[in-house]
Amino acid sequence: MFDFPEALRIHAGDYVADFVNWLKTTLGFVFDAIGNFVLHLLLYIQDFLLWLPWWSFIIIVFLIGWWLRTFGLGLLFAAMLFLIGTFNLWDHMMLTLAIVLTSVIIAVIIGIPVGILMATWKTIEMIMKPILDFMQTMPSFVYLIPAILLFSLGVVPAIFATLIYCAPPVIRLTSLAINGVSKEMVEAAQSFGSSRWQLLMKVQLPQAMPTIMTGVNQTTMMALAMVVIASMVGAEGLGMDVLQAINHIRIGDGFEAGISIVFLAIIIDRLTIGIANRFTTQK
Predict the structure, then answer these.
(1) Residues of the chain above pLDDT 70, percent
(2) What pLDDT digit, counting tens, does each position of 215-226 carry?
(3) Residue 216's closest CA among 104, 114, 131?
């Protein structure tokens, strides 16, 4: 009487599973190609980061922090990185950074054009908005399921799940920024005979760049927030250290890995905000 009738049960999950299996069977070669591309991009970035001597990386971050923000912040970033090194987590930090950078690069390459299309055509905006809502409200653990089914275990499904989770901010803010360019400026450019491409490249994108960089900042932070979840499908780095510390109740190791992720997040956040401020100043 009080239980919901079993006869009305809809097995929606079965249809989704069948669809994913169909994708894997029919378009398996496409996912293999995507997986190889992502893996090669990750390995190039990872090899470069690991090739850099630790002291040179600290100096580079210090100089960038000084240039973008202040001398004191540059020094603070260098101290944070040095502290991560003293935890014996330098290589793991670089692996984490490689995963984050790979995810953000792909998100920006896909997200900015999609955001421009949303701002240009209302039909695309109507289609994309519910998809972006879905991507942002779905629990991040759920993304691991199709990622494992399509790409098996390893770092590629980790990047795929991270990409779905972190891409919406850059898409939304790119669309918002393009729509926010003053109409008078757009009409003035059109009155001088600018083509749609010239209008976009010489007026709209330069004006929208500070907001777009804010979207890149949000995308980067969300990618970093996925490192622990991504480690559940085999992504190595600081997230794996946190996961292993939880599994074996090693409080000290978990603290060192966790605080290293926090340091990395602070450095990336402040540097990307500094880049966005530079664009605002130039504007």
Answers:
(1) 97
(2) 888 888 888 887
(3) 104
